[in-house]
Structure formats: structure tokens, C-alpha cells
Write a structure and sequence with these properties.
With 355 residues, this protein is of the alpha/beta class. It contains ten helices and nine strands. Strand 5 (131-134) and strand 6 (139-142) form a beta hairpin. Residues 1-17 and 164-169 have low confidence and may be disordered. Bound molecules: flavin-adenine dinucleotide (FAD) and 2-acetamido-2-deoxy-beta-D-glucopyranose (3 copies). One 2-acetamido-2-deoxy-beta-D-glucopyranose binds at residues 37-39, 79-83.
């Protein structure tokens, strides 16, 4: 037995003990530290009957709702900013790893699960639902937990004039357009949104690319061929240009601008969990095929279409950061290092510190 294997063996045999010990400790010490907030029904451990329901309420990818998906040791649902501050301070003090969840749409589930293999706590913002309308400067600030139903109330009272105009293709109010985009049949009333449920759930894996050069016909032919071999892969091409190209690359973190013809999203979705390996390898195959036709050095990617295949902290070099952010990655790392030098807020693809 080589020495590294031996060490691994030791670690594996110790892990269950230290994890369950850590778990109980996290639950107790964290809860205690939060106790001065004094709000009932905001702290849940797996012992609570509602824990699973809360965890699942915003876990949008079925791929990360399985029994083997790593689960948080506690979920905290703050009601206001003070609660969040307290939770962050407590977690920092106690050395507890945090995940923050708003809508739970993270493609790799990073807001509610972790492949880093350490105990963690989720701060779930679903109860932060304030909507503030400022008529003076025509702005609305919605807290992250405010879903459509909450906004509808506001639109009805504050902005009745926002209905679509006659000259639009379909004349419909804003809320009907939401129903339309979600592909509800016309007879379903908008009140279905009050149920606060995702309209559908499936298992999925996605990847992304940006294209700066016209793909030759031969490239498209090969693409059809490879896609028709499979049942599932879907591609979505979003045209770029216009105002997107006029904004300097360095003005905000999002850098995929001047010169980008379109963005590609590859999606593979399935309903039968046994299909995972097949579907994931199909989408990777399409992605490999596209290498010739998409951006290179870096092969750009869209951070909202989170993809751990391109690399992650502790498991690969940091080239994934340049894919998402190009040179802005340097700036982001400087900011990160300045404001979070202990790397307290971290996940598989969080901005790493400067070495
Ligand atoms: C069905 C579906 C359709 C989508 N359509 C589009 C689309 O059309 N266009 C597009 O650009 N994207 C789209 N996305 C991607 C979506 O925009 C991203 O996944 C986005 O990150 C989701 O935000 P969230 O708050 O729902 O996710 P979450 O999973 O809650 O959070 C995403 C990430 O942000 C972190 N985070 C959450 N809240 C906070 C906070 N308050 N402070 C700091 N960090 C926080 C989380 O820890 C996680 O790392 C879609 C996703 C799905 C599932
Ligand atoms: C727990 O679940 C029950 C049943 O769904 C619900 O009535 C109750 O409000 C939930 N409690 C909290 C704190 O979410
Ligand atoms: C959860 O339940 C287990 C036994 O089922 C117990 O050992 C543990 O202390 C409980 N944790 C909390 C936080 O109540
Ligand atoms: C948040 O709620 C607590 C009660 O739990 C209250 O004491 C505190 O003042 C509130 N803070 C804000 C900013 O509303």
C-alpha cells in the first residue's frame, strides 16, 4: 500500500466520526449564536419535520435532490438584513461554511449543495420578500425572495400603465406575458403563480459557449449529424451585438461583448435518473465537437450557466475564471482579496484569492 493510499484510507475511516461530531456542533453552536435574534421558525436542522420541504422548495435541478446529494446541516431563513448580518458574523466566528440561496436556480446547485465535502449551512432568502416602489425616481427594489405574486400586487397598484401596447404582436398584460412565456394554457389563471412552485422540474446539465466567427456550413452539417445521434441535446443561440457591444468589457464583470455574434447554451435534460451518465456524456460530446467553432484562449463561458466541468477551486487551475470573466477575473480577485482575505465566502467556483 503506497503511503498516499494509506493516508486516504485513514481519512476515510475517520471521516464519519468527525463529520457527525462536527454536524451536531454546528447545529448547536450556530443556533446558540443566533439565539439573540429571537425569531421562531427561522432555523431548521434535519431533525425538524419541515427541513426537507424547505430544502426542496427551491432546489430547482432534480439532479441535486437525490438522497445522495450532500445536504446542509442547517437552514436559516432570515426575515431581515439584521438577521443576515448576525448569521454571517456567527458563521464566520464559528468557522462554519455557508451557502446562500435566493431562487435556487444555480445550474450546479451551489446554493444548496456542495461537492467540497465539508459541513455547511444554507442561508435561504425566501422569506425576504419586501418590494419598495419609489414613484419619484420610477424604480422598484424587490428583495430576492419576492416572487411574481408579490410583484403582481405592486404592479396592479403602482404601475397599471405597464400593460403591453396594441401594436405589440400579442396584446397582453405583463402578468399574462409571464403566463405565456411559462407556456401555461390560456385558461390557467395567473393565480396559479401564488402556489410559488416551479412550473416543472427535471434533471439537467448545461454548458455554454460564445461564437465570434461565422460557423461555416460544413461545421453546421457536422453539428446536425452529432446532435441527431442523440435524443436529448438542445442548443439555444442568443444573438449578441447592439448595445451589448458598446459597453466596455471592463465596466462590469460580464465581459462577452464587442465581437460576440451569439451565445450558445447546450442543455441536456432527462426525467429518468438512470439516464444521467448517458445524457451528460452526450452533451459533452456536442461541446467537444464545437471546440473548432467557438471562442478560444479563453474558451468563453457564461457564469449563469454554471458548469463545474470547466474547473473548480482546489481541483484544477483557475482558467475557468477567465472563461467566465476574461481579464475582469484579475479585478475580481483583487476585490475578493481586499474584502474577503480569509476566503470566508467560498464555493466550488467562487472568486479565488490572489496567490
Ligand atoms: C429554468 C431556468 C431558467 C433560466 N433561464 C435563464 C435565462 O434566461 N438567462 C440567464 O441569464 N440565466 C438563466 N438561468 C440561470 C440563472 O439566471 C442562474 O442560475 C442564476 O444564478 C439563478 O439565481 P438564483 O438566485 O435563482 O440561484 P441560487 O441558486 O439561489 O444562487 C446562485 C448563486 O448565487 C449565490 N447567491 C444567491 N443569493 C446570494 C446573495 N444574496 N448574495 C450572494 N450570493 C448569493 C448562490 O450561493 C449561488 O452560488 C436559468 C436557470 C434555470 C434553472
Ligand atoms: C411546516 O410545515 C407545515 C405544513 O406544511 C406548515 O403549516 C408550517 O407553517 C411549516 N412551518 C414553517 C416554520 O415553515
Ligand atoms: C437530532 O436528533 C438526534 C437523534 O435523532 C440527536 O442526537 C441530536 O442531538 C438532534 N439534534 C438537534 C440539533 O436537536
Ligand atoms: C429585524 O428583526 C428583528 C426582530 O427579530 C428586529 O429586532 C430588528 O430591528 C429588525 N431589523 C431591521 C433592519 O428591520
Amino acid at each position: 500500500m503506497s503511503s498516499s493510499r494509506f493516508v486516504l484510507f485513514l481519512l476515510l475511516s475517520l471521516a464519519p466520526f468527525s463529520f457527525s461530531h462536527q454536524k451536531a456542533q454546528i447545529q448547536e453552536t450556530f443556533h446558540e449564536c443566533l439565539s439573540n435574534i429571537q425569531t421562531p421558525n427561522t432555523f431548521f436542522t434535519p431533525n425538524d419535520t419541515n427541513f426537507t420541504q424547505i430544502l426542496k422548495s427551491r432546489a430547482i435541478n432534480l439532479k441535486f435532490r437525490t438522497p445522495s446529494t450532500p445536504k446542509p446541516d442547517a437552514i436559516f431563513t432570515p426575515l431581515n438584513e439584521t438577521h443576515i448580518q448576525t448569521a454571517v458574523i456567527c458563521a464566520k466566528k464559528l468557522g462554519i461554511h455557508l451557502r446562500t440561496r435566493s431562487g435556487g436556480h444555480d445550474y450546479e446547485g451551489l446554493s444548496y449543495t456542495s461537492v467540497m465535502g465539508r459541513p455547511f449551512v444554507v442561508i435561504d432568502l425566501s422569506k425576504m420578500q419586501d418590494v419598495n416602489v419609489d414613484l419619484a425616481d420610477n424604480s422598484v427594489w424587490a428583495e430576492t425572495g419576492a416572487t411574481i405574486d408579490r410583484l403582481v400586487q405592486i404592479m396592479n397598484t403602482g404601475f397599471p400603465e405597464l400593460g403591453l401596447k396594441k401594436e405589440d404582436c400579442f396584446e397582453m398584460s405583463w402578468i399574462e406575458s409571464v403566463m405565456h412565456i411559462m407556456e401555461y394554457p390560456k385558461i390557467v389563471p395567473p393565480s396559479v403563480l401564488l402556489e410559488r412552485k416551479p412550473s416543472f422540474l427535471n434533471y439537467f446539465k448545461a454548458k455554454s459557449d460564445f461564437v465570434r466567427e461565422v460557423i461555416p456550413e460544413s461545421g453546421l452539417e457536422g453539428m446536425w449529424k452529432i446532435m441527431l445521434e442523440d435524443e436529448s441535446p438542445l442548443m439555444i443561440w442568443n444573438p449578441y451585438g447592439g448595445i451589448m457591444s458598446k459597453i466596455p468589457e471592463s465596466s462590469i464583470p460580464f465581459p462577452h461583448r464587442n465581437g460576440v455574434l451569439f451565445k450558445v447554451q447546450y442543455v441536456s435534460a432527462w426525467m429518468d435518473p438512470a439516464m444521467e451518465d448517458k445524457r451528460v456524456s452526450e452533451i459533452r460530446k456536442v461541446y467537444d465537437y464545437m471546440t473548432t467553432y467557438v471562442t478560444k484562449s479563453p474558451r468563453e463561458a457564461y457564469v449563469n450557466y454554471r458548469d463545474l466541468d470547466i474547473g473548480m477551486n482546489g481541483k484544477s487551475d483557475d482558467s475557468w475564471g477567465f472563461k467566465y470573466f476574461k481579464d475582469n477575473f484579475h479585478t475580481l480577485r483583487k476585490i475578493k482579496t481586499k474584502f474577503d482575505y480569509s476566503n470566508f465566502f467560498s464555493h466550488e467556483q467562487s472568486i479565488p484569492l490572489i496567490d
